[in-house]
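Usage example:
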Amino acid sequence: MTTAHETATAAPATGKAAAAAAPSMNVARAASLITLALLLLAPLFLKNFYIFQMTQWLIYAIALLALNILTGGSGQFSLGQSAFYAVGAYTAAVMMEIMGVNYVLTLPAAGLICFVFGFLFGLPALRLSGIYLALATFALAVAMPQVLKLHFFEHWTGGVQGLVIIKPDPPEFIKTIGVKMSQDMWLYYFTLVVGIGIYIASVNLLASRSGRAMMAIRDNQIAAAAMGVDVPLYKTLAFGISAGITGVAGALGAIAVAFVAPDSYTIQLAIALFLGMVIGGVGWLPGSLAGAAFMVFVPNIAESISKGLSGAIFGVILIIIIFLVPHGARQIAYMAQHLIGKIGKSS
Amino acid sequence: MSILNSRIAAFSTALAVIAFAGGDAVAQKKYDPGASDTEIKIGNIMPYSGPASAYGVIGKTMEAYFKKVNAEGGINGRKINFISYDDGYSPPKTVEQARKLVESDEVLAVYAPLGTPPNSAIQKYMNAKKVPQLFVATGATKWNDPKEFPWTMGWQPNYQSESRIYAKYILKEKPNAKIAILYQNDDYGKDYLKGFKDGLGAKGASMIVVEESYEVSQPTIDSNIVKMKSSNADVFFNITTPKFAAQAIKKMGEIGWKPTHFLNNVSASIGAVIKPAGYENSQDIISSAYMKDAADPQWKNDAGMKGFDEFLAKHMPEGNRIDGSVMYGYNSAQTMVQILKQCGDNLTRENLMKQAASLKDFTTATMLPGIKLNTGATDFAPIEQVQLMRFKGEAWELFGEIISGETGG
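Running the assembly step on the lines above writes:
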């Protein structure tokens, strides 16, 4: 899972580390295989509740991956990811509950709708950059819960009450091959497959011509334009793709939680996603897993320490992390790689 | 004679042994996950963080009350282990916490999770798992549905029946009223609005001259009030949460708008609303209540209120006595303790629901006189009564009779 640095997604700041990483490519490959094995095997030994938590973790990781493509790939900020996540979630919920569509089909639909939504939003966003773009997307995130409550949409969205979704059962063929699987475990593996698919596609995207064009824009927009990169096209494309993937994550989230309501997709979610990206390491795709783990588990840790001060403890943990490892999980990964490389050489 | 006597003695001893054994079999202890000889595990979910964190104090009050019960020996010798988690008022987090409580902590029941969206999110799960979702802390109307959701029960009077009571009162006392409505644009506001319109009926539609909504994120509602004044309405139904209710009352005083003012029970707190808005601005406001208000001077020497103050002093010194949420948690926790007592040694989830559904005229010392909690197999709405009251001087003056709000969608 750590092949992303090969695709030169590394920001210049960590160039030194990237250079050191080259000889220890095998370490990275081994790490990704171990991660994959753990992701595949862990649910077999866990209670349903923990499998559900892991599913949420994977779903947030997908959403973080999407944000990473936008920010790490094309250098655009977004505090509005919760809006795309909400559109994806509601697409899945409305399709499943009102139109009676199979849940599997809701994912591509959510992705497509969010892609179009993101692409269209990317057009006006072209005029903005940096913090101004962040503010525009912020507005989107603030507006979304209210838009979902609008009387006009209530027939579809259930208004403030939200929509309850029926959780899908494992498909028949699993039963016929004699495997007993809970709904939670099925959803976990389903999410894992979707996640791996999106991950591979994203790595390839960033390694492709389009990916290089996006990164050129990130590093120097004028230089990129001078080299013949169609700046507006790639910027909006990055927005669209990021929104599309976020939409798929939102749809998965809706199915896993089996409920959607405007209060699920407030600005808090957008901020949490932004935090997760920073914790995972901006532009480093495998970091999404670490960032998502932070989103899901650290609030619980903070709460177990003190209920009344959970917010303050969360803040303290956050400050410590940012202070010790400003580049997030990516920095830890490089440090570990470096260390293993050293040990390998000395022995 | 003596032989006969000894025979009789032997016989009666044998009889006593049999009776004793038989009695023991009847009183056999029964437990579901979360209950044992020494402990009853009760789960709870509260917004200790996030936009609704002001309500977190309800969970803290409940915790303090159960601590008091434990200190006094527990319930039938068992201590309550109250496990309360934070969901930040975010439904996906509520689902996670509910599953943690049921599957990891293995609680007997999830008691009083707060908020309509969070409870909606877990209702199906709780019923599928057959774990009681008891006395949910929300006034939405949908919790009284034993047929569809036999494991979910509300507690407080629901919003719709409360506003239906106001509507009826208006139809009777002011049949030609011109009504202005201000409501919060969320589930709570819309529930009240629906009940009110249902209560007014077909004729009512023409009585409402202006309908304004505001968002919780709005800093002030002054402009809404000014706009409503210009509609020349003579009745005002105020569906706002405490902060906005105080703003509204104050602004109305400033611009001299004096309609007949109905204020929803959510904001009937003297400490949080009336006092900050000013007593002179609050005269003649009509509202309704089911609990005593600790800031109301008329309960100063009331025995129930003294018990409440004693509880705060001993077990929750940091609690703010005039915060309505503290009173809420205090009364709700007593209801929970009552049904746990009723369960006796049969602490199964099924029996817990059965006992919750067989409350008979239960009341606490801090409910208004005459308010009684009743439930049944087809009635999952414990508190259905409220009393109208009018603000006079520095206190609420109760008037009329205890009114039963009818249930119904």
